TrEMBL record:
<dbReference type="InterPro" id="IPR036890">
    <property type="entry name" value="HATPase_C_sf"/>
</dbReference>
<feature type="domain" description="Histidine kinase/HSP90-like ATPase">
    <location>
        <begin position="24"/>
        <end position="121"/>
    </location>
</feature>
<protein>
    <recommendedName>
        <fullName>Histidine kinase/HSP90-like ATPase domain-containing protein</fullName>
    </recommendedName>
</protein>
<dbReference type="InterPro" id="IPR050267">
    <property type="entry name" value="Anti-sigma-factor_SerPK"/>
</dbReference>
<dbReference type="Pfam" id="PF13581">
    <property type="entry name" value="HATPase_c_2"/>
</dbReference>
<keyword id="KW-0418">Kinase</keyword>
<keyword id="KW-0723">Serine/threonine-protein kinase</keyword>
<keyword id="KW-0808">Transferase</keyword>
<dbReference type="InterPro" id="IPR003594">
    <property type="entry name" value="HATPase_dom"/>
</dbReference>
């Protein structure tokens, strides 16, 4: 069957890619990181992942800025298994821990959002200690 328009690349045919962005210790940098994430996913025709990826990256980066004192790094990795891994590395070796949530409080929901919206998530100390990575994975529905 001949189609009258070009067929877009499917998830099975998107080549693996990886992007990294150094994020300064500045709350305004989170917006820049979200914009960069959005641009990368649109460029690779993964627009349907933007909502979850932006929200989860936002939460992980905000935690890195609020709870550490240095730069962070945001990494995006699309694998041959059709999974997007979003990773935030920061300079604090302590693992993330859930906080008590007050009904009308503005804090303490980030890890719960990771649990609810990510297909998988976790954290790991960086080699040599002194830092950690928090990551989540999302895939096309």
């Amino acid at each position: 069957m001949l189609l009258p328009f070009p067929v877009k690349e499917t998830a099975e045919r998107i080549e693996p890619f990886e992007y990294s962005l150094l994020v300064p210790h500045d709350a305004r940098a989170v917006r820049v990181a979200r914009t960069t994430l959005r641009a990368a996913l649109l460029a690779h025709e993964l627009g349907e992942l933007i909502g979850r990826a932006e929200l989860l990256a936002n939460e992980m980066l905000t935690n890195a800025i609020v709870h550490t004192s240095g730069t962070a790094e945001l990494s995006l990795w699309w694998s041959e298994w059709r999974v997007l891994r979003v990773t935030v590395r920061d300079n604090c070796p302590r693992p993330p821990t859930p906080r008590a949530v007050r009904p009308y409080g503005e804090n303490g929901r980030g890890l719960r959002l990771l649990q609810a919206l990510a297909d998988r998530w976790g954290h790991a100390p960086s080699p040599g200690g002194g830092a950690k990575s928090v990551w989540c994975e999302i895939s096309r529905a």
